[in-house]
Amino acid sequence: MTTMKAAQRQAQAKEEYNAFLAVCPSRQLLDRISDKWVVLILCALGGDAAPQGPGAPRAMRYSELSRLLAGVSQKMLTQSLRSLERDGLLTRTVTPTVPVTVTYELTDLGLSLHRTTREIRYWAQAHMGEVLAHRDDYDTSAS
Amino acid sequence: MTTMKAAQRQAQAKEEYNAFLAVCPSRQLLDRISDKWVVLILCALGGDAAPQGPGAPRAMRYSELSRLLAGVSQKMLTQSLRSLERDGLLTRTVTPTVPVTVTYELTDLGLSLHRTTREIRYWAQAHMGEVLAHRDDYDTSAS
DNA sequence: GTGCCTACTTCCCGTTGGAGAGTTTCTCTC
DNA sequence: GAGAGAAACTCTCCAACGGGAAGTAGGCAC
Fold first, then answer.
1. What CATH number has the domain spanning A35-136?
2. What are the tens digits of pLDDT across the range B33-87?
3. What span, in angstroms and rounded, lies between the C-alpha atoms of B84 and B93?
4. Alpha carbon of A136: minimum distance to chain B alpha carbons (Å)
5. Which residue has the higher pLDDT, A50 or B115?
6. Nearest nucleotide, C1' to the C-alpha of B76?
7. CATH code that applies to domain B35-142
């Protein structure tokens, strides 16, 4: 496996995995990353949260993420971060200061997924108006 | 609003909406589209399910989608399709044949989102190997 | 009438996610 | 030296969501 180049491996993977099949492992991966908190965490660590447009990816502390992702529960934040770490999308670093400092940073794999989660968030923000307009039409015509 | 060009409207929307805020409507939209069934429905209607690589987007029947999205419950399929219709991402057409035929087809708005959901699915399938490999490392080193 | 077909809808129940309080470890204050 | 405080969880309880299976509606075929 390690003798294959990444491009070859990916081309082969595209043949082997099919997320439409319930039993396919890529379906489970899709389930995991199709999650609001996962998308927002990747966007945050990818640097999209900077007020003046998207900045560079950077490591962030637990409390910083907690503040940024308004409304996330501590339980879900910890849980999501752990599963992303397990899947190799980010690294968790504990620095024994006092109190302890824990930082999270995207890996290369995480950065590659961030490119598309960024698009998702952009899409939602850019097309919000159209969606709201359509909801109004739908609701009025349904009455 | 209708006097603005789409590009202008979107540029303005990017300023106004911020999905990191819990109260922002774009956050609710992000929650909706960050859903495994929504992603798979968009991929299916976008033509990604053709065996010989991605085909053209096309209308599909309820039963066809139900078969394609292995493991989806009827309840969730109906529910997801209705919310996508309400948001203007797809159209629902009832043809009074016997028995009745219901087809779903992506709108232009749906097609624009499909471009990124396709990427999500591709990413999951292409990087599955790396994720599985990392999980193994993680599990062994944690023991 | 009985059965069958598609496309749902309803009901029950197990799993998941949210709210909030408790925990740990150390340091700084009084 | 008792108590407050801070970061990063962890635990407990409860409501909401999703899956499975069974029921429904309308029309035709037998």
1. 1.10.10.10
2. 999 999 999 999 999 988 776 789 999 999 999 999 999 999 999 999 999 999 9
3. 13
4. 9
5. B115
6. D18
7. 1.10.10.10
